[in-house]
Write a structure and sequence with these properties.
This protein has 357 residues and is an alpha/beta fold. It has two domains: 219 residues, Periplasmic binding protein-like II (D-Maltodextrin-Binding Protein, domain 2, 3-Layer(aba) Sandwich); 123 residues, D-Maltodextrin-Binding Protein, domain 2 (3-Layer(aba) Sandwich). Helix 4 crosses helix 16 and helix 6 crosses helix 7. The longest helix is centred in the last third of the chain and has 18 residues. The radius of gyration is 20 Å and the shape is globular. It comes from Bosea vestrisii. InterPro entries: NrtA/CpmA_ABC-bd_dom. Pfam families: NMT1_2.
């Protein structure tokens, strides 16, 4: 069998796990692939390198693939996602100082997103009345699940991101430093960076993404749209390797080994113990609160990998809330076409009942 070399970009997040496992546990090799994984420093770098074919495929924010396809954000790069890579797994974290202030202003259980939103609105109003600058929140990319989750939370408070609260883009590995320096007051990002901020003693988790939206669209395996058509064998082989990695990752006895793979210096470069706790759904909350346990905090199961065109409607609604687009029917059709549920079905059929060892 001829070996096919594929270069795949990824960002250092727990949700890159299936791409990492496809290589490190030999699933890609078994499919006849020589998988080269390249860690990137920002989502824009990753998107641009996929567009100019420095990458064959990429672990990518689903909304970023949709935005590039629509030509929003200065780049027109039609992309396609024959499969997702996870669902859920993000959180909103504030600096300890801001969280303590939020706690003092909360009227009710702060774990309730409506209660926390009202407390945030009160905080914003007090700062404005005192002549203090607005709070600054960050997400990992403008076109991201995280931006739109922040928007949904703020909407509960009658606030708008970018207006009542300043907005910055901070790549995932830089969020902890940005919070520690005071550059930002809070951020929404995928695991492990919320837990890393709490473990460093500089942040407190306010909400997990599942508090706002369960089974939330997140990362996809993105290809250039024309490559999905021209390179069906490559798409199928990599998809099959990731499906096998999914089955392996969902076995409880493999969690510790999975965390070890992800902790490597060229992957996440964080302690395996921290990553393993996240994989078990044991989340550090900070501010002397007990560990929070969330079943299926981040999903890697087979159904989580099925791309759902309906998710594109949620993404466009988030874009509209953020003032990024005024969606047209044509845009909705193009966005839905990025998420290739039919291609996923073909990849699934290709592996049949092959055992996962």
């Amino acid at each position: 069998m001829t070996t096919l070399h594929l270069r795949v970009g990824f960002m250092p997040l727990v949700d890159c796990a299936l791409v990492v496992l496809a290589k490190d546990e030999g699933f890609a090799e078994a499919e006849g692939l020589n998988l080269e994984l390249v860690r990137e420093v920002s989502w824009s770098n990753l998107r641009d390198k996929l567009n100019v074919r420095l990458f064959d495929a990429a672990h990518m924010l689903g909304p970023a693939a949709i935005a590039a396809t629509l030509g929003i954000g200065g780049v027109k790069a039609p992309m396609a996602a024959p499969m997702a890579l996870n669902r859920d797994g993000a959180a909103i974290t504030l600096s300890l100082r801001r969280f303590e202030e939020l706690s003092r202003l909360a009227e009710g259980d702060l774990s309730d997103t409506a209660v926390s939103a009202r407390a945030l609105a009160a905080m914003v109003a007090r700062r404005s009345a005192s002549g203090l600058p607005p709070l600054t929140f960050a997400a990992v990319f403008g076109f991201s699940t995280h931006t739109y989750l922040l928007g949904e939370w703020l909407e509960k408070a009658g606030l708008r991101l970018g207006e009542d609260i300043r907005f910055e883009v901070v790549p995932p590995p830089q969020t902890v430093e940005a919070l520690a320096s005071g550059r930002i007051d809070g951020f929404c990002a995928g695991a492990p960076w919320n837990s890393a901020a709490v473990a460093a003693g500089i942040g407190a988790m306010v909400h997990a993404s599942v508090d706002l939206r369960r089974n939330c669209h997140d990362k996809v395996l993105a290809w250039r749209a024309d490559d999905v058509q021209k390179r069906p064998a490559a798409v199928s082989k990599l998809g099959a390797a990731i499906l096998k990695a999914s089955a392996w990752a969902c076995r409880p006895e493999n969690v510790s080994r999975m965390a070890h793979h992800l902790s490597a210096p060229d992957r996440l470069a964080l302690p395996a113990e921290l990553i393993e706790r996240i994989l078990h759904g044991e989340l550090l909350q900070g501010d002397d609160r007990p560990t929070r346990r969330i079943g299926q905090f981040i999903r890697f199961d087979r159904e989580a990998l099925r791309p759902d065109p309906d998710d594109a409607d949620w993404v466009l609604a988030g874009m509209e809330r953020a003032g990024q687009v005024v969606a047209t029917p044509q845009m909705r059709d193009a966005a839905r076409e990025v998420l290739l549920s039919a291609s996923f079905g073909s990849i699934l059929a290709s592996i049949g009942d092959q055992p996962i060892v």
